[in-house]
Automatic annotation (TrEMBL):
InterPro entries: Carb_kinase_PfkB-like, Carboh/pur_kinase_PfkB_CS, PfkB_dom, Ribokinase-like
Record keyword Ion transport present: no
Any one Gene Ontology molecular-function term assigned to this protein's record: kinase activity
Keyword Kinase applies: yes
Family: Belongs to the carbohydrate kinase PfkB family.
Database matches in Gene3D superfamilies: 3.40.1190.20
Pfam families in the cross-refs: PfkB (PF00294)
Residues covered by the Carbohydrate kinase PfkB domain: 9-304
Protein name: Sugar kinase
Length: 320
């Protein structure tokens, strides 16, 4: 059967999981209720782009189970093209459970042998990727299995062959692999990217280096425009031998920092699609990251184009 859909501007893929969050601070062991949702770095970015008015496509694999069906319907309902996503029979959808304890939060993963971990390069639609303007991938997909890593590598090759720009967020997750396992893989992927979006703390681990100046010297050898999040209240933009600084947008309140990085990525990519320079796109990403942390949820707080426009123009909400 031929698949038809509107060609996305940005294509991404990865593992989206069911998400249950304990609703009090007594820890998961004693929590009486859990809030059900879902999360995944790549689908979060796709939703963020769709809310900002851009065509995005997510190509993940889910189990054909209640969680997978909920996730697929929810991503589709946010305006993301899921025509290349799959619900796989006899496979499970991954699960993560979050608990918020006083002063810290923890995430527990249940994703071994999940549908996404069986992802293979043969599942990729070459024309779908080649028709996009940007392919966005993360190090999370590279970490969940060897076949998923091969799928990321193949997707990047397809994009490069078609002159599609590659955006790469390392999203280093130390619960998925060791730094010795992650370092060669993520640095190799960074070398192939057009836009590299790491955090400064991630770079310190990947380069085994604490000195920011020396880290930037190593980044300067990449072909990518590097957007380094997590400086002292600012983001660094390394582009063509120049280093610019973009101050964080001050948030009125901080309720949940989860999803801020994905919101930043969505804003940055949206800026590029709008014809902004990487520096201008970083400013948009910073604004959206600031908006995301003022509400709770992995993706629920991602703003719409109208909300971003209101923030940019200081349009205040009228209650009644």
């Amino acid at each position: 059967m031929q698949i038809t859909s509107v060609q996305p501007e940005v294509v991404t893929f990865g593992e989206s999981m069911g998400l249950f969050t304990a609703q009090d601070t007594r820890g998961l062991e004693y929590a009486a209720t859990l809030y059900k949702s879902f999360g995944g770095a790549e689908s979060n970015v796709a939703i963020g782009l769709a809310r900002l008015g851009h065509r995005s496509g997510w190509c993940g694999s889910l189990g054909n189970d209640p969680l997978g069906q909920m996730i697929m319907k929810s991503i589709r309902g946010e305006g993301v093209d899921v025509s290349r996503a799959k619900l796989k029979d006899d496979m499970a959808t991954g699960l993560m459970i979050r608990e918020n304890l006083p002063g810290k939060s923890s995430v527990h993963y249940y994703r071994k042998l999940s549908a996404a971990s069986y992802m293979t390069p043969s599942e990729l639609d070459r024309d779908y990727i080649a028709g996009a303007k940007i392919l966005h991938v993360t190090g999370i997909t590279a970490a969940i299995s060897s076949s998923s890593l091969k799928t990321v590598q193949e997707a990047i090759q397809i994009a490069k062959d078609a002159d599609v720009k590659v955006s790469f967020d390392p999203n280093l997750r130390m619960k998925l692999w060791t730094i010795d396992e992650a370092r060669p893989v993520l640095l190799s992927l960074a070398e192939q990217a057009d836009y590299f979006l790491p955090g400064l703390d991630e770079l310190k681990l990947l380069y085994d280096e604490e000195n920011t100046e020396r880290i930037f010297e190593k980044l300067s050898t990449l072909q990518a425009v590097s957007i380094v999040k997590g400086g002292p209240d600012l983001t660094y933009v390394l582009n063509d031998g120049r280093i610019d600084q973009v101050p964080y947008v001050k948030a009125e309140q901080v309720l949940d920092t989860v999803g801020a990085g994905d919101g930043f990525c969505a804003g940055f990519l949206a800026g590029l699609l709008q014809g902004k320079t990487p520096l201008e796109a970083t400013k948009l990403g910073s604004l959206i990251g600031s908006m995301v942390i003022q509400a709770v949820g992995d993706w629920e707080a991602l703003p719409t184009h109208a909300q971003v426009d209101a923030a940019l123009n200081n349009i205040r909400h009228i209650e009644r």
